[in-house]
Amino acid sequence: MLKGIYTPLSGAIAQERVLEVVSNNLANINTTGFKGERVTFTLLEPEPNKHYKTPLPPANYKVPFEKMSGARPNEMSYVGVDSIERDLQQGPVVKTDNPTDLMIEGKGYLSVMTPEGVRYSRDGALTLNAEGVLTNKAGAPVLGEKGNIFLKGHSFKVNGRGEIYQGDQLVDRIMLYDFKDNKALEKVGGNMYFYGGPEEGRTLAENTNIRQGQLEGSNVNAIKNITALIMAHRSYEAYQKAVSNYDSMMDKSSNSIGEVRA
Question: Which residues contact 24 (CB under 8 A, 6 or more apart)?
Fold first, then answer.
């Protein structure tokens, strides 16, 4: 009886994580370049055959043992969170006609220099600071082949390869990186990621196009995420009720069953 309470409890904990992820998706539905996430689950199985003697089954038992899997009385299976998967699909095009807005079409991330080191982002809503350095909205410089990108005013052109021209002069080229394992990109806030994998796992992005005067919108599907939020909430309530019922049953077994009455 005591072990039984942990099955719905594990489900409730897993649904709490779903609620966190889906709520974050919905909160960033208007965030430039945001990539939605979803939770995947895994079955946490107990130690197999723990309560049976050898041989399994007895030699004279004619039913295949695999058909007895549902008849193990003392084993419980629990659910756990397997991973948080990021949806890498391209977000919608948002036209702004602002020359400092750059949309990444295809794979790739901008590299920006923060006080904590290099970070990566799909957010192309850029600006020029007082020194003429191309930065993100947080003021972190966007990195080019020469380092920080210095521009003289807002009159410049960026081609699909990320090359920046002022007049006929090539100023710099924006560095775009891709990663063999996107799971190695860790969210650090500010719509940026930290890459903690091996250096050989980071490469220059290929088959990527940059569009000036446009932005990539969030790829979060509002309807799907609202539906997922409702389902997770109802599932959590069901698990919570199951835990409460188990608690009530244990209370009765402890205090009522076997009670000696005069």
Answer: 37
How wide is the angle at C-alpha 136 spanned by C-alphas 131 and 141, nearest 5°? 50
Is the separation of the CB atoms in 110 and 144 below 8 Å? no
Q: Identify any residues that bridge with 104 across adjacent strands, giving them in sequence order.
A: 210
Q: Tens-of-pLDDT digits for all 262 residues of the chain?
A: 566 777 888 888 899 999 999 999 999 999 999 999 999 888 876 655 555 444 444 444 455 555 554 444 445 677 888 888 999 999 999 999 999 999 999 999 999 999 999 999 999 999 999 999 999 999 999 999 999 999 998 899 999 999 999 999 999 999 999 999 988 999 998 899 999 999 999 999 988 999 999 999 999 999 999 999 999 999 989 988 888 887 777 777 767 665 655 5
Structure tokens at 14: 């897993």
Structure tokens at 87: 């949806």
pTM over the 0.90 mark: no
Which two structure tokens, joined as six digits, stand for 108? 């790739």
Considering only CA atoms, which of 19, 13, 67, 16 is closest in space to residue 44? 13
Q: Are 168 and 222 in contact (CB under 8 A)?
A: no
Closest to 209 (Cα-Cα) out of 124, 82, 98: 124
3-state SS track over 14-51: HHHHHHHHHHHHHHCCCCCCCCCEEEEEEEECCCCCCC
The DSSP letter of residue 13 is: H
Nearest CA to 230 out of 22, 28, 7 is that of: 22
Residue 223 corresponds to which tokens in the numbers above? 């309807």
